[in-house]
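Quick one, tokens below. Sequence please?
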């Protein structure tokens, strides 16, 4: 598992690197002292897991997380900070985990192992094999739903709402988790708040500043914005 460290304090970076390099299967792909350096380094090294501080000069960890959410391949984010009061904000940007300084070796190892399980394909499936049914919720009722029935998922006010052909459902998965489960079935993250089933895209419409919006094939012809960071991937996917 490739890991990237972001912290403006060199001693904190050294300590975290020391601990991570002693965890089996972990490769520290790089580190950065601020958000701007981190964004460049993460784009180059494409880590699967990023540990980032919150309070940094310039681009904060929370602001950096919003930029990382726009990347075609999004790493899992673990906030590593001395401030517990930022936990809610961290999970609002879909943090995978939240660690407090000073680092606890066992707690860190548990986080890494949990990330490894999240990144691994489910047992009995090869990477790229279409996903099995996803548990969606209508009230307290569980609705097992085949991926092909799902049009898109949207992050709304701290929860993820899934739009299927027959209505809206809740899910207990984050948008990042849904993306990992559904990408083999043709789902693409076109915006930090939207995951789209490309099999249900009716039209790709040019929008302002060289961007696009998607028109879905549901009755309402739902419109999905494509962020400027995802335009190249969208063009590549549809051979535009």
């Amino acid at each position: 598992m490739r890991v990237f460290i972001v912290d403006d304090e060199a001693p904190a970076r050294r300590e975290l690197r020391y601990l991570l390099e002693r965890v089996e299967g972990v490769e520290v792909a790089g580190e950065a002292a601020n958000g701007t350096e981190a964004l460049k380094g993460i784009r180059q090294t494409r880590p699967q897991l990023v540990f980032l501080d919150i309070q940094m000069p310039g681009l904060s960890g929370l602001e950096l997380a919003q930029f990382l959410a726009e990347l075609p391949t999004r790493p899992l984010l673990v906030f590593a900070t001395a401030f517990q009061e930022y936990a809610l904000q961290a999970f609002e940007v879909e943090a995978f985990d939240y660690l407090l300084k000073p680092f606890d070796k066992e707690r860190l190892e548990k986080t890494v192992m949990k990330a490894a399980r999240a990144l691994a394909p489910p047992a009995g499936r090869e990477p790229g094999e279409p996903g099995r049914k996803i548990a969606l919720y209508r009230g307290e009722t569980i609705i097992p739903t085949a991926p092909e029935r799902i049009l898109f998922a949207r992050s709304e006010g701290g929860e993820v709402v899934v739009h299927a052909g027959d209505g809206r459902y809740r899910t207990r998965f984050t948008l990042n988790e849904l993306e990992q489960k559904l990408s083999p079935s043709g789902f693409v993250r076109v915006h930090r708040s939207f995951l789209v089933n490309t099999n249900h895209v009716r039209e790709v419409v040019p929008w302002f500043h060289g961007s696009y919006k998607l028109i879905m094939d549901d009755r309402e012809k739902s419109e999905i914005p494509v962020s400027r960071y995802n335009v190249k991937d969208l063009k590549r996917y549809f051979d535009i």
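Residues 105-119 form the longest helix (15 residues). Residues 134-238 form a domain with the OB fold (Dihydrolipoamide Acetyltransferase, E2P) fold (CATH 2.40.50.1020).
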